[in-house]
Amino acid sequence: MKKFLYLFLFVFLINNNAYSGSGDATEYKITIYKIELCESGSTVANCLNPVTLYEGDSGTIDIANTAAGAQAAALGNPGEAILGKTYNVTQVTMDRAITIKGYVATGNDSCSTVASNGSTKAKNGLGDHATGGTPDTPAAGIYYAGEAGSSDLDVDDAWNAVSATGTVDTDDDDNSANYQRLQWRNVLTAPVTITLGKTPIITLAFDADGTIGFAGNIATASHCTAAANATTGLFVMNPKVTITIAN
User: Fold this and answer.
1) In which region does residue 84 sit, left (phi positive, over 0), alpha (psi from -120 to 50) or beta (all else)?
2) 141, 116 in Cβ contact below 8 A?
3) Which residue from 234, 221, 19, 246 is spatially nearest to 126, judged by alpha carbons?
């Protein structure tokens, strides 16, 4: 069932408004470091002339929880958007370490998240394996986004790895450097031109369905329960995000 939240960013020009949905992940806590708008002509692979709406440390925001709005309310300064400019893409830099709760299941086999899982920048985390069609109750734990060491994340060039000091890996969809952060781009449902006297509303729809990834054969218990490693285990996939800006 869809859950909704509203994030209000009170500034003189734009009032950001966002809602999230929960699915397979009943808990999905992210940390945001930067939010940018990209000028018209940008794609998921290339952010042109970005303007920074927010830069800092958001603290954890649970996008699968309706109470998240209070935590995110202070984010951003949309007044930095330039009057007369048209924007069609957003770019968000966030931490790869994400608190998540849920499970992956195929047939009668499942792997549930656990609190102590060993996940790192370079390792997928372990989980709790079950057979018989009933997953073990998952516990919230910190897992890392992006399959460990992957050189092809298959997300249409929307991902770039970013180091903790801000260095961006220019190879799209490449996680082989195992950096601490990720840069994620989304195309707006329609471009928006910033106009004096109007207050655009930015709506973000988050869907946490299918956001827990599994490497290996889930029918093999050790691929779930073995100590954290770079070839098997649980990792976090990106949430599905739909972004609309309307005047």
Assistant:
1) left
2) yes
3) 234
Q: Taking 70 as the threshold, does the pLDDT of residue 11 lie above it? A: no
Give the pair of three-digit tokens for residue 136: 């073990």
Q: Which amino acid is at 82?
A: I
Q: Which residues contact 27 (CB under 8 A, 6 or more apart)?
A: 62, 64, 65, 99, 100, 101, 102, 140
Instruction: Measure the CA–CA gap between 162 and 65, rounded to whole angstroms.
Output: 27
Q: If DSSP codes are grouped into helix, strand and coil, which group holds residue 68?
A: helix
Query: To 5 degrees, how large is the angle CA 92–CA 228–CA 166?
Result: 25
**What single DSSP character describes residue 218?**
T
φ, ψ (nearest 5 deg) of residue 87: -120, 145
pLDDT range class, residue 78, cuts 50, 70, 90: low
Mean pLDDT, residues 21-50: 83
| Cα separations in angstroms, 108 against 219, 220, 226 | 8, 12, 19
> What tens digit of pLDDT does each residue of 95-111 get?
999 999 999 999 999 99
Q: How far apart, in whole angstroms, are the C-alpha atoms of residue 143 and residue 25?
A: 12
pLDDT tens for 142-180 read 999 988 888 888 888 888 999 988 899 989 888 898 999
Rounded CA gap, 121 and 72, in Å?
25
Give residue 156's pLDDT: 82
> Within a 13 Å sphere around the CA of 161, how many CA atoms are in the beta-carbon half?
23
H helices of the chain, where? Answer: 69-72, 221-225
